[in-house]
DNA sequence: CCCGCTGCTTGACGCCCGTCAAGCATTGCT
DNA sequence: AGCAATGCTTGACGGGCGTCAAGCAGCGGG
């Protein structure tokens, strides 16, 4: 089984690697299509059309549509976990962290709007379909932890304690971000500055 | 045209009334089905199955699927605008208003979960599909005004000014409610008490 | 009493979906 | 060089969808 074909002595290019690579490649194509059309209107044929493969290949790498989408959201998660870790590690003052965090939120809202609306789409789907819940809840918890690292570092730099639990803070920021994203997508020019202002106003209020 | 059949002298039971009545009746059936299955999985046949009519009747009262769904969301809006007006008018102290508001949020989250997840579903659909945006934005503005009436009254009763604009407050509460709804739907027993606690904690912070 | 209109059902259409089997092309091993 | 396994394409399937046309039932007006 698993006839490894290591070219030299190193562990290079096993068939399993190729396989996983194609799965990820298809998952990326799928994420792009899903981000463009949304879950309801995305078909496997459309995903394949937006890739360099034909529609039948999906069933070579995935058992069914659900396994593909699951693989997609896991890939998405692996990308977004570390999105704010850089500015958390680098910022030296609370004010700097807050400014950079707000800027990053605005940037990701504008430049990665499709993937964010997809996230909200899938999270809402999980309210209807049980199948999605494990992955959605895991990603939601991961995002919450990410936000948690930002705000606890912010509090430490400010030398003052947080007066709210991280889960609630995440809910507040999520509401602000979702409102901003919708405004941005419907063409509201003030969406970016509104988001920045709201985040900049909100975080200082959370300190004791 | 429009041969009115007023029975007595009053304006009673014109054919147009019957027509609108059926439209609303179908819209209610549609809302129930949509709340159960979500937008992506709801078909016109399924809607008709959950009503007392057959699948063809939809096209007698609505031009197409989109017109039906539009009629649905408008009916939904007309129901929810006044949801909190009672407690706004009746509450005599800020504390009473806050407690009743939090209770009402919890109650509506638990007893009307399907229609709320449908609202989040449609709002997310509007991020992808332009057709939905006018109605979604109008409902969102209506909900925001409703929340605005609650919090401004709350501030007046407390004798202290609001230190945040209504749009931002709506975003915060929406984030808290959406998180609560998801938790409730996945079976989290603490969802209700969490929502109540978060709202009870949040509103006092918004006063100067 | 019968006719015609309104309200609803039934059935059919073309389309697109997820899925899968069969076959072709390419690669890599012996 | 020849063969077998791998990787991908093609085409077909059953089914569900939105839509719509034709037809039936029941009621009200002449």
Automatic annotation (TrEMBL), chains A, B:
Which PROSITE patterns does its entry note?
Answer: HTH_TETR_2
A Pfam family found in this protein is TetR_N
Print the keywords alphabetically: DNA-binding
UniProt key word DNA-binding: yes
HTH tetR-type domain: from which residue to which, for each copy? Answer: 20-80
Q: Cross-referenced InterPro entries, in alphabetical order?
A: Homeodomain-like_sf, HTH-type_Tx_Regulator, HTH_TetR
The GO terms this record gives for MF are: DNA binding
The organism's place on the tree of life at top rank: Bacteria
Q: Does the keyword Cell inner membrane apply?
A: no
Positions of the DNA-binding region: 43-62
Q: What is this protein called?
A: TetR family transcriptional regulator
Q: What is the protein's species of origin?
A: Nocardioides agariphilus
Lineage of this protein's species?
Answer: Bacteria, Bacillati, Actinomycetota, Actinomycetes, Propionibacteriales
